[in-house]
Design brief:
- The chain has about 170 residues and is an all-alpha fold.
- The chain folds into 2 domains: about 1-30; about 35-165, Orthogonal Bundle (Lysozyme), CATH 1.10.530.
- Helix content is about 70%, strand content about 0%.
- The chain has 8 helices and no strands.
- It has helices at about 10-30, 40-50, 50-65, 85-95, 100-120, 120-130, 135-140, 150-165.
- The longest helix is centred in the N-terminal third of the chain and has 25 residues, at about 10-30.
- The radius of gyration is 20 Å and the shape is globular.
């Protein structure tokens, strides 16, 4: 019978292949997307009302979870804050800017939460986090596209967020 050609055996093979592909994806994601600093990201999410998977995605995109990372522009730490932003956010929030992972995550999340309130939109807040609030405001007001690297940054963060939402349970 032709109907038997795609019977139970084929369904089982397709199911097993899909399950294997999902397992490989989860393993690859867990190796590539760090689950480090869980207590710190959870605390920051609660303190500032920012989704934890979004905080983790920003850390992934900004520093790859390297607290010693320093950009060519001078941004540093897990969330790649500029020195002036770090000091200003520390003074405004009372969070000690001691360079610890907790401090970096709390300060970066506090700064990002402020951008979310200011811009009212995650994509605009991400653009502001990456390229500065003045550039993001100009893009919003003029309808211009962000810098290509900023557009790529936004896509990278949002993709990483989806991975964190699906693969990691907080």
């Amino acid at each position: 019978m032709d109907g038997d050609r795609f019977g139970n055996k084929t369904v089982r093979v397709i199911f097993l292949a899909a399950a294997l592909a999902a397992a490989v994806f989860c393993l690859a994601a867990s190796l590539r997307f760090s689950s480090a600093y869980g207590a710190e990201t959870s605390e920051a999410a609660r303190a500032f009302g920012v989704d934890e998977s979004l905080i983790r995605a920003i850390i992934f995109a900004e520093s790859g979870y390297d607290n010693g990372a320093v950009s060519r522009a001078g941004a540093s730490g897990l969330m790649q804050l500029m020195p002036s932003t770090r000091v200003e956010t520390s003074e405004r929030t009372g969070i000690d800017a001691d360079g610890s992972p907790r401090s970096e995550i709390m300060l970066g999340t506090a700064y990002f939460a402020g951008l979310l309130r200011r811009f009212g939109d995650e994509r605009a807040a991400l653009a502001a986090y990456n390229a500065g609030p003045a550039n993001a405001r100009r893009w919003m007001e003029s309808g211009e596209e962000p810098y290509p690297e900023t557009a790529a940054y936004i896509r990278r963060v949002l993709f990483a967020r989806k991975v964190y939402e699906r693969v990691f349970i907080f």
